[in-house]
Structures are given as structure tokens and as C-alpha cells.
Amino acid sequence: MNNASHEFLGKKIQHVTAEQSFEGFGKPHISTDPVGTTYISYLTAGISFVASSTGRIRAIQFYGEAYDDDFVSFQGLLPEEIHFNTTRQQVHKHLGPSDEEGGDEVIEVLGYIPRWDRYTRAEYLLHIQYTKDCNGIELVTLMEPGWQPGGH
């Protein structure tokens, strides 16, 4: 998958599951949460697609090795020429100041929320979640502009 991965945003789930370029990723793990959000996760490839209750892809997540033991680190090209070993300072130098930032806090029910930056682009939102020391990236998410998790 290349930097044009945002082209999957808005497509039906069937478009992703039928995509021949994913055949090497193995069989996807598919789960649906109580609000109808479906996760199509390729654990051995470090990537998942998030679909709303309408069956459209709303987000694409690229996992680094620090994020989750269930996923291997994504080995393909990340959006906007960033890399998992890029520090937050390097991201800001490369992409400029973020449009929104947050994290580095503990929320009672959720626990620790890592530091993150969000960049707004015409075709997608780029959400970058950092390791606790901000010396690397653990998760990169592309989202449809205006979509919020749990939304349609």
C-alpha cells in the first residue's frame, strides 16, 4: 500500500475485502462493536480498516510495533513520507505544526492516552499517535474528513 491509501476512504467494505493487493496479508480478522463499527484487521500486516455502520471505510490504521501485541508492525509506506521511528519533533519539522493535538493524559475509564497530532488535508485527516517519550510513532490513522468514531 502506498501514500494513495486514502483512496479507500468512503469505499464499501466489500471493495477492501475483494482487493487483490491484500491477498498477501492473509485472512482478515473482522469484528463489529456495539455501535456497528466494523474493524477489518490484517494482524500479520499491521493494518486495519474501520467501517461505519453504513459499511463504508471511514478510517485506515497503520500499526507500529509499539502499539499492540496483536499486530505486527506495518512494513509498507506510511502517508506523507513519515516513518514509525520519526520523533514528534521531526514530524513537526516535516509536516509543520499540527491543526490539533492532545493526549499525554490519564482518563479515568480509558487510562493513559498517548500524545497525538492531527493534520487536516483536503482528502483526509492524518492522526499520528506517538510513543510515550515521543521518540517514535506507534499508530498512524487516516480518516475521512468530518467523520468521528462511532458515527455513520
Task: Please give a handful of descriptors for the protein shown.
152 residues, single chain, two-stranded antiparallel sheet, 8-stranded antiparallel β-sheet, 2 helices, mainly beta
What's the total count of β strands? 10
Q: How many discrete domains?
A: 1
Helix-strand topology string: HEEEEHEEEEEE
The assigned structural class equals mainly beta
Major β-sheet, in short?
A: 8 strands, antiparallel
Radius of gyration: 15 Å
Strand content: 25-35%
Residues in helices, as a percent range:
under 10%
Low-confidence stretches: none
Mean pLDDT: 86
Q: What spatial form do the alpha-carbon principal axes imply?
A: globular
Helix run count: 2
User: In whole angstroms, how far apart are the ends?
Assistant: 25 Å
**Strand arrangement across the biggest beta sheet:** 1-2-3-4-10-9-8-5
Structure explained in plain terms:
The protein has 152 residues and is mostly beta strands. It is 9% helix and 32% strand. It has an 8-stranded antiparallel β-sheet. A two-stranded antiparallel ribbon has the order 6-7.
